[in-house]
């Protein structure tokens, strides 16, 4: 998979450079193209560029020399284990070219994940940002606790950093935009920060209903050595008990392995717990109050057929001030089945937009996935968009960027309403230009040339509705059979950002003299 990603990234860079040079038809155009190529070389300086950069059309802005110069973006995360290795590989700039703030002085830059282990998560997210906006100033920010999160958000706002990428979710209720994390996001957004946040990966790890409807519990899809981290959350004065159980073959029944502990007034949390082989499940009982809806969310183990994707967005993806991001496979346009979606507890639609996932941005970490990976694509795209708008004298505040991103997003076909919000983030909305010529001969030759500021994904030639040639390059030719009658030749070109253009020619048999 990694080798395929390398080949694709190199091929994509080559084609958009070819298209750029092809458009330089005047002396001034050639000079502009040459300068853009020099800048583009900086955009492609990392050993590997995320495929998602091309899917969102970032390369169309690179071709204009827009690489994030003069812009700043914060990446907020729990840990940056492996930071120096990423710098050594050239996937991140030197430390002297980045800024840092650690709101959690006890755990250093390796940090501590929700599962209690050091994490490279923040490095992976920063690499994606750097792929897309390589000349933007990166600010790496760390936190651990809710109060540290609020302090970090305020620190970002104090320094006027216009965009922040936060690829994390918390399992502590409420999930209606009023919790401590959501309030911190809203406070930063009110001060002009475009806060880009992951929706979460809980669509297959979420259940909702009343305790009475839970029956025999929610099955947990676990393997030997997995770590459990599960929450039960509710609203109002009700009380619940939460328990994880393991099946004991010797006794022929279920035994309790860990009980939930209070994590705020409306949440029980099963702390990080190692489990062995065998079957496991989670039970919830209501112990006080009238029958109340309860949400069970698992950080790791899936719920199989019992999962309920609806309402699986946690916090701070529930914040009103967050631009919340769902996940779409970059190569297939299929929504990731784990991508969380609303409505939130107070009935609002989330996510707001989607980004590409299952990408590779570091040769040592092929296949980075989750709404985590989608989020920095949107955030870094916002940085390029901000630079683009400022260069043209257009307003580029958080509200302006949000509206522009939502307005230009590409709709994604999906059987489940609301999983991608406005659609896939898209920086390039201009369809490719298309040139078609047909030779007059007994066997005519159809030649197609497509030009685009971004990357051509596919050129398709069809005859009378039947595809006869499809290629992943901007120029292609096909020789038709001997014509006995007129035929319709249809040509369609699509770029990586999803913009299409088509044309139809009627080709007639030549008149023989």
Strand arrangement within the widest β-sheet reads 2-3-1-4-5-15-16
Q: Number of helical runs?
A: 10
- Rg, nearest Å: 26 Å
Q: Return residue spans where pLDDT drops below 50 for at least 5 consecutive residues.
A: 1-44
- Note the gap between the termini: 57 Å
Secondary structure category: alpha/beta
Shape: globular
Number of strands: 23
- Strand-residue fraction? 25-35%
Average residue pLDDT = 90
Helix content: 10-25%
| Largest β-sheet summary | 7 strands, parallel
Topology:
Elements: H1 2-23, H2 27-43, H3 51-55, H4 58-62, E1 72-77, H5 83-88, E2 98-102, H6 121-132, E3 137-142, H7 146-158, E4 163-166, H8 180-190, E5 194-198, E6 206-210, E7 218-220, E8 227-234, E9 239-248, E10 253-259, E11 261-262, E12 267-274, E13 280-288, E14 293-298, E15 322-329, E16 353-357, H9 370-391, H10 398-408, E17 433-438, E18 445-451, E19 456-463, E20 466-471, E21 475-479, E22 487-495, E23 500-507
Parallel strand pairs: 1-3, 1-4, 2-3, 4-5, 5-15, 15-16
Antiparallel strand pairs: 6-14, 7-13, 8-12, 8-14, 9-10, 9-13, 11-12, 17-18, 18-21, 19-20, 19-22, 22-23
Helix pairs in contact: 1-2, 6-9, 7-8
Structure characterization notes:
With 513 residues, the chain is of the alpha/beta class. Helix content is 24%, strand content 28%. It contains 10 helices and 23 strands. It has helices at 2-23, 27-43, 51-55, 58-62, 83-88, 121-132, 146-158, 180-190, 370-391, 398-408; strands at residues 72-77, 98-102, 137-142, 163-166, 194-198, 206-210, 218-220, 227-234, 239-248, 253-259, 261-262, 267-274, 280-288, 293-298, 322-329, 353-357, 433-438, 445-451, 456-463, 466-471, 475-479, 487-495, 500-507. It has a 7-stranded parallel sheet, sandwiched between helices. A 5-stranded antiparallel sheet has the order 6-14-8-12-11, with no helix packed on it. Helix 6 links the parallel strand 2 and strand 3 (137-142). The longest helix is centred in the first third of the chain and has 22 residues, at 2-23. It starts with a helix and ends in a 6-residue tail after the last strand.
């Amino acid at each position: 998979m990694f080798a395929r990603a390398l080949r694709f990234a190199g091929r994509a860079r080559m084609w958009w450079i070819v298209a750029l040079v092809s458009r330089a038809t005047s002396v001034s155009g050639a000079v502009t193209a040459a300068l853009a190529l020099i800048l583009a070389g900086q955009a492609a300086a990392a050993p590997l560029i995320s495929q998602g950069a091309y899917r969102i059309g970032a390369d169309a802005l690179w071709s204009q020399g827009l690489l994030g110069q003069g812009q700043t973006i914060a990446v907020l995360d729990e840990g940056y284990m492996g930071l120096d290795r990423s710098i050594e590989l050239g996937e991140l700039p030197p430390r002297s070219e980045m800024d840092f703030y650690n709101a959690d002085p006890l755990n250093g830059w390796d940090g501590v994940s929700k599962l209690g282990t050091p994490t490279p998560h923040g490095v992976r997210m920063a690499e994606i940002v750097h792929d897309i906006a390589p000349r933007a100033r990166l600010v790496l920010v760390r936190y651990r606790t809710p109060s540290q999160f609020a302090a970090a958000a305020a620190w970002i706002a104090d320094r006027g950093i216009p965009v922040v990428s936060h690829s994390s979710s918390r399992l502590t209720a409420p999930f209606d935009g009023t919790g401590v994390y959501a309030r911190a996001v809203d406070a930063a957004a009110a001060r002009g920060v475009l806060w880009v946040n992951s929706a979460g990966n809980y669509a297959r790890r979420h259940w909702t209903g009343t305790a009475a409807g839970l029956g025999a519990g929610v099955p947990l899809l676990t393997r030997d050595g997995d770590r459990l981290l599960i929450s039960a959350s509710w609203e109002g004065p009700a009380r619940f008990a939460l328990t994880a159980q393991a099946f004991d073959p010797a006794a022929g029944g279920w035994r309790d392995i860990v009980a939930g502990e209070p994590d705020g007034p409306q949440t029980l949390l099963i702390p990080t717990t190692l489990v062995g082989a065998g079957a496991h499940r989670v039970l919830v009982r209501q112990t006080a109050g009238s029958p109340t809806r309860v949400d069970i969310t698992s950080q790791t183990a899936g719920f199989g057929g019992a999962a309920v994707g609806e309402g699986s967005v946690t916090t701070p993806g529930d914040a009103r001030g967050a631009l919340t991001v769902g996940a779409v496979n970059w190569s297939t346009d299929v929504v990731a089945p784990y991508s969380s979606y609303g409505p939130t507890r107070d009935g609002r639609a989330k996510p707001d937009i989607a980004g590409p996932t299952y990408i590779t941005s570091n040769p040592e970490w092929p296949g980075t996935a989750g709404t985590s990976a989608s989020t920095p694509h949107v955030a870094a795209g916002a940085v390029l968009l901000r630079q683009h708008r400022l260069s043209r004298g257009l307003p580029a505040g958080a509200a302006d960027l949000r509206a522009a991103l939502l307005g230009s997003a590409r709709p994604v076909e999906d059987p489940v309403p609301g999983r991608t919000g406005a659609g896939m983030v898209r920086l390039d909305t201009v369809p490719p230009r298309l040139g078609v010529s047909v030779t007059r001969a007994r066997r005519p030759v159809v030649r197609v040339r497509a030009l685009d500021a971004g990357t051509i994904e596919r050129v398709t030639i069809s005859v009378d509705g039947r595809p006869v040639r499809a290629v992943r390059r901007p120029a292609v030719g096909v020789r038709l059979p001997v014509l006995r009658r007129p035929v319709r030749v249809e040509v369609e070109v699509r770029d990586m950002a999803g913009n299409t253009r088509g044309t139809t020619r009627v080709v007639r048999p030549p008149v023989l003299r």
